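testing teh design pipeline on a random one, pls ignore if ur not involved
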């Protein structure tokens, strides 16, 4: 699948095309479950929806450590 984005730099602006990376989505649920067990996820409102709220940097760093430990 192709994706498109407007790329800005100080001298020009252009549309770029890039491919979606290939990944195994089954690797994410175990990380999510392990991260939720740390207590770093809270439940709150986003607009009128109930959502799980977390610090994005924390979950990315956690996932990197998790996958390194699994390999």
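output:
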């Amino acid at each position: 699948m192709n994706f498109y984005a407007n790329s800005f730099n100080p001298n020009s602006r252009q549309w770029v095309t890039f491919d979606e990376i290939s990944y195994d989505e089954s690797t994410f649920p175990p990380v999510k479950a392990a991260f939720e067990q740390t207590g770093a996820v809270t439940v709150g409102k986003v607009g009128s929806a109930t959502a799980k709220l977390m610090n994005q940097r924390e979950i990315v760093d956690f996932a990197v450590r998790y996958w390194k430990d699994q390999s």
